[in-house]
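Support request, please re-run this one:
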Amino acid sequence: MKLICFSNFRVTSVHKVHPTRKDPFDHPPWSIAQPPAKRFGPKLPQVNAIANAMSKRLLKSRSISTMLWVTMAFVFTGTSCSSGFWQTDELGMQHRQLEGSWRALTPTTGAEAWLAGSDGLWAHIQEKGNTTTLEIMHGAGVTVGDTVVPLHYRSLVVTGDAVLGMSIASPAHIQRANITEDGGLELPRVLAWTEADSAVFMDAMLHLGQQCIIAMGDPTDGCLHVVRSEDDGRTWTRVACADSIRPGVPAARSGEAAFAASNGNLAAVGDTVWMLSGGGASRVYRSTDRGISWQVFDTPLQQGGTMTGGFSMDFADAQHGIIWGGNWAAKDDQTQRGAVTQDGGQTWALISENAGPGYASSVRYRPGSQGRQLALVGSPGGLDLSDDGGQSWRHVSDSAFYAARFSPDGQTLWLAGNGKIGRISSDNLGW
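Re-run finished. Output below.
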C-alpha cells in the first residue's frame, strides 16, 4: 500500500471566492414534495432570502448576464512517507477528510475519481506512482448585489474529454470543463445549460455513451423535467411532457418527483435508460430510445410521504435491476425500501423485508458480478454488502457515506459523504 503525504501547496488559479459554508452531518437530500424554497431553506437558512430574491430577479430578466462564475483550484502534490494521504481502518478502507458535502461521485479507475458537492465544490483525486494529486475547485456562484450565493451540485459526469456538473435549485445550471492533457480541467467552467423556472429542482445526470447525456429533475409543467444532450453536454434540449400527439415524459402524480441523494436516480444499459421517482409516488420510468419517449411502472416501495420512496437505482443488465430508498425520516424502517426486477423494470418485487439495512441513499452492482454482488451505503447506516443480488446483506462498516461507485473494473469501491471520501478494494470486501 502506498502512503502519501503532502510536500507542497500551490494555488493554480484564483478569481474570486466566497466563504465556504458547512452542511450539517446529515441533512435531507431534498424531496420534491416540498417547494424549492423550503427545501433550500433548512440547509442554508442564512441565504434563503437571497436565493428567493435571486430566483425572482432571474425569472424577471430571463438573462444569465446576472451570473458571475468564480473558480479557485488548490493543487496538492505529495511524495512517499510514513503517514500519508489516506488513513486506513481495520477493514482496509482508506479514508480522507475533505471539507464539503459530497454526493456526486464518478470514478474513472481505482486510482482516479471526480466529485461534486455543496457550495460550488468540484474535486479531482488522482494517484500516479508515488504521487497523489488532489484538486479542489471552488466557485460557480451566482451574485446578487455584493453577495455570492453558491450553487449546490448533486450530479457529475465524465465524458472522456470533459467533466460536467449540475446544480440543483433554481436557477439550475449544467457547467462543462474540458480535461487537459495532464488530467486537470480548463477553468473557468463553461455554462452549457440553465433553467430559471422557479419550480425546477434537478436530481441526477448520466452519460449514456455515444455523446448522449441525460439529466432529470422534479416536475415542471406536469411531468419530470428531463433534458438531453447529443453532443457530450455542449447543447441541451428539454424532453416534452407526453400527450396524445407526441411522445415524451408521462404525467407526474400528485407529490411525485425525486431525491438528489447520490446522483442515483438514473441508470442505463445500451439504449435503455431508467428514472426513479419518489415522494408522493415512487415509480420507475423506462425509455428504450435514449430518453426520447418513456413508459412508467409502479413500484412497491414506501411512498406518499414527503421523504419516502426510491432514492437510488442500478441495473446489472437490460433485465435485472434494483431500487432502494425507504423513509428518510424513519431510517431504521426495514420495510418496503428495496425491490428488484427481472423484466427490465416493468414489475418489481420487495427484497430483504424486515432484515438488513434500512434507509439508504446509494446502491450499486459490482461490475462483472452478474448481478450478484451489491454495495449499499447511507447516512448513518454505513456500508452493507450483498452476495445474492440483494436478498440478504452483511454489514461491514459503520462509516456513513452518501454515495458509492465502483471503478469500471469492479476492483475498487469509491465512497463520498459529508466531509470525507473513501475507497476500498474488492479483496478487502471479501470478493
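The first strand starts at residue 4 and ends at 14. The longest helix spans residues 48-61.
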